[in-house]
Write a structure and sequence with these properties.
Elements: E1 2-11, E2 16-26, E3 32-43, H1 45-62, E4 67-72, H2 75-81, H3 93-103, E5 108-113, H4 120-133, H5 150-153, E6 160-166, H6 171-174, H7 188-202, E7 213-215, H8 219-232, E8 236-238, H9 255-261, H10 263-271, H11 283-300, E9 305-310, H12 312-323, H13 329-332, E10 340-345, E11 351-358
Parallel strand pairs: 1-4, 4-5, 6-9, 7-8, 7-9
Antiparallel strand pairs: 1-2, 2-3, 6-10, 10-11
Helix pairs in contact: 1-3, 7-8, 9-10, 11-12
């Protein structure tokens, strides 16, 4: 008998209260043969997705299937179970192994990615399970914990956590030249820097290969994002809102060269963020552009962990939004190449900066 297994899993917080859902359908008629749904405690989206697949395969075996068509909206699980992506995360390996053992019991198994809107039956079951997971737990003896920002800011809801990664070294950064829209590649050292950053990010809780890495479209950020994607099994999408400042006619110049070329304008540009570079952008314009990008990303990936790969000014702008401070931050905050910062944006409008300019992975 040939069946279709549709499975889904989710986590409200990633990690957070998690659950999965799976439905087994007759391949020829679409008749529902079995349903599975369960809350699994605190887990990540990927763990929940794998648990949904395992439950679906177990249910398919119970109804006597010999051929299974698996359909899921988790690209990570589909690609890993199809053998096209490696299973790198330690928490995924035993789950992938168990799913593989179950799949080996059928004569034929295929895996197909489907968009979320075509996986509504399993999604509904998973959400029902997560609704149950959100029920109050029995009272336990208090344990010492590190306070979360929400405990003292009053922030409510699950935040969207944005990991901010600056690109690695380029020839322009070696010479300390204004590098905005000029499209330069990483140096060999820059490539080494971003590989180190990628290894670190791949180990962070909440990094979800189903959530695309969002990068500025320039070569140096694309290379940086690609290194992280290789380490996490993720994909990369670009966003023009994350581009560096357009330095106009100062592009490629050093600070001294720009100051000598346009002394009065350069001096005003450094003291007034509304003043644009000649033929370029003002820092105020960049901030408005980045703010719009932030709003779009937080709405699209609400409650998830998102990696953004960008440049100095856009990253400073996002940290400025998190801190709710003025433009002086642009001149008082230093960001190293391949540095990692973290800011969280809550659905009630609160925010929390969790990390700034961390380069521990480069040591």
């Amino acid at each position: 008998m040939r069946v279709r297994v549709e499975a889904d899993g989710g986590s409200r917080g990633n990690p957070g209260p998690a659950g999965y859902g799976a439905v087994v359908l007759a391949a020829d008629t679409g008749e529902v043969l079995a349903e599975r749904a369960e809350a699994i405690g605190v887990a990540t989206n990927n763990v929940a997705e794998y648990r949904g697949l395992i439950a679906g395969l177990e249910a398919a075996a119970e109804v006597g299937a010999d051929a299974v068509e698996v359909a899921m909206d988790s690209k990570l699980v589909v690609e890993q179970m199809s053998g096209r992506w490696q299973v790198k995360h330690p928490s995924m390996k035993p789950l992938a192994r168990r799913a593989g053992e179950l799949a080996a019991g059928f004569e034929h198994v295929t895996y197909t990615w489907i968009p979320r809107e075509r996986n509504q039956h399993a999604d509904r079951l998973a959400n029902r399970a997560m609704d149950g997971a959100a029920a109050p737990e029995p009272t336990r003896a208090p344990q010492p914990t590190r306070a979360s920002p929400a405990s003292w800011t009053g922030a409510t809801g699950n935040p969207t956590k944005i990991l901010l990664l600056r690109h690695g070294q380029t020839p322009m950064s070696v010479d300390r030249r204004y590098s905005g829209r000029g499209d330069v590649a990483l140096t060999d050292l820059g490539a080494t820097q971003v590989e180190a950053a990628a290894r670190r990010i791949a180990k962070l809780d909440g990094v979800d290969a189903d959530t695309p890495i969002i990068a500025s479209p320039l070569t140096r950020t694309a290379q940086t994002a690609a290194a992280v994607a290789a380490a996490t099994g993720g994909t990369v999408a670009t966003h023009d809102g994350l581009l560096e400042t357009d330095f106009g006619r100062w592009e490629g110049m050093t600070f001294t060269e720009a100051a000598e070329r346009d002394p009065d304008l350069h001096r005003r540009w450094l003291s007034d963020t509304s003043v644009p570079a000649p033929g370029g952008e003002s820092f105020d314009a960049v901030h408005r552009r980045v703010s719009a990008a932030r709003d779009e990303l937080v709405e699209r990936y609400a409650g998830r962990t998102l990696l953004v790969v960008s440049h100095v000014t856009p990253i400073k702008s996002l940290l400025r939004l998190g801190l709710d401070v003025g433009p002086s931050l642009l001149f008082r905050l230093h960001l190293d190449l391949a540095s990692l910062s973290i800011v969280e944006f809550y659905p009630d409008g609160n925010a929390s900066v969790r990390l700034v300019n961390d380069i521990g992975h480069l040591n």
